[in-house]
Structure formats: structure tokens, C-alpha cells
Amino acid sequence: MSDSIQRVAIVTGGSRGIGRAISIRLADDGFAVVVNFVGGTAAAAETVEAITAAGGRAIAVQADVADDGAVAAMFDRAERELGGIDVVVNSAGRLALSTIADQDLDALDALHRTNIRGTFVVAQQAARRLREGGTFVGMSTSVVGTQFPAYGAYAASKSAVEGMTLILAKELRGRDVTANVVAPGPTGTDLFLEGKTQEQIDTLAKIAPLERLGTPEDVAGVVAFLASADGHWVNGQTIRANGGMV
User: Which H/E stretch holds residue 135?
Assistant: First the structure.
């Protein structure tokens, strides 16, 4: 691919939290970015404005990641308006905290629709459309390893993300396309902070040896590495971006 062709990234859930930080970081690294969102048009517009104000190129595209038709249309638009697709980051996700004994099954189904089906739908389009040298990044959670109580449904969904993504890496043999997973630890986003007391937040912040919460920018830096030429030899891996939390 010619160096004169701008690389293009799709970031699902790209308007808020970790997804927003990833969108902005990839734009800073020279990508044209599709900022995907399902609700919150204003947040998506603000993210696009932040990118374009800094001299980058971005468009906001609404699509439910679990809706295969909407996701295919988003990929169509990226190819039509931006010229192709080089990086896909599936940052869209849903969280529902409950013990397994008390888990509402409708909430479980909604969570799995976004986190499992949504990841699968986005990965499917990525597998079909990523250009040579491309990258797919799925988002998991370090809770898969730490196994905190009340995260049973969420950890189950993210275990599925890890499994399917690492299989995808093998299925992409011969394409020069990588597939990896980034699994953040506690990160200071609205999704993480919602419903927690300050005491709970402080306790979680002390678990990692670095003794702080992660920031969305910490996670975005790991994703940016995987999307770069320097990170292209990393393939079929889950990277725990959590400050050393075990």
C-alpha cells in the first residue's frame, strides 16, 4: 500500500470513555477515524470535533454493533468515503453487575447481545474487509483473570471475546492481518465509576502495584501500538493493560 494513502480505523463505541480515547489517539497517529456510536449523538459529534479541530479526519456513524445490517452499512460507508479499512477496534460494550444467583436474565441477554454477538458481527466484517497489513482489536477485561464477585455475566461475555478473537487470528493466516485482545483493568470511565462509592474506587485503585486507576489514554496507547507497524508482530494475544493487577 502506498504511503500516500491514509490509513483508516473504525472504532465502535468510539464516542465515550476508552473508545473516545482510542479514536483520538488513532487520529493523532494519522488515521482517518470512523467514530461509531449507538446513542448519544452529541458525544459522537464532540469526539469528531475534537479530532477535526486538531487537524485530523473523522466521521461519526451510528450503528448497533449487534445489528449485522447496520454494521455492514458502516463498513460500506468507511470504504466509500474514506477509501478502505485498516484497523477495527471493537470498543462497544455493556456492563451489568450482579451475583450469579441474583442476575436478571433479561439483563444477561442484553449484555451478551452487545458483548458477544456485537463483537462477532464486527469481527466478521473486519475479517472480510481489512486491507493487507490490517489489525483487529477486541476489548476484554482483566476481570476474566481476577474473577471479582458480581462480574460473572460480564466476565463470561468477555471470555467469549477472547476466545473468538484468538481463533480469528488463526483464521486470517496468509492475509497479513492481526487479531488481538486488550483487557483493561479498573479504568476511570463513567461506565466503571457508575454506582461505586469512593471507598470502593479507592480500594480498586490500590490493587495494582502502580496504585492508581488506569486512564482511557493508558488503554488507547496499547491499542495504538497494536495498530502500528511496530506492533504488527504481536498476533493472537490477550494483553492485560492493568498496571500489574493479578
Answer: strand 135-139
Q: What is the DSSP letter of 80?
A: I
Q: What is the pLDDT of residues 78-117, one digit of tens each?
A: 999 999 999 999 999 999 999 999 999 999 999 999 999 9
- Alpha carbon distance 12, 35 (integer Å): 7
Q: Which of 123, 216, 210 is nearest to 172 (CA)?
A: 123
- The per-residue pLDDT of the chain, averaged, comes to 96
**Residue 241: its H or E element:** strand 238-241
Q: Measuring CA to CA, how many Å separate 183 from each of 74, 93, 99, 113, 208?
A: 25, 13, 21, 19, 14
**Catalytic residue list:** 154
Q: Which of 104, 94, 81 is nearest to 32 (CA)?
A: 81
pLDDT over 70, % of the chain? 98
Mean pLDDT score, 31-35: 98
Q: Please report the sign of the dihedral spanned by the C-alpha atoms of residue 196, residue 198, residue 199, residue 202.
A: positive
**By C-alpha distance, which of 202, 198, 203, 208 is closest to 241?**
208
Q: Which three cell numbers stand for residue 137?
A: 482489536
Q: Which domains does the chain have, with CATH numbers?
A: 8-186+216-240 (3.40.50.720)
Judged by DSSP in three states, 12 sits in strand
pLDDT exceeds 70 at position 224:
yes
The CB density around residue 185, as the number of other CB atoms within 10 Å, is 26
Written as nine digits, the cell of 46 is 464532540
> Mean pLDDT across the stretch 230-239?
98
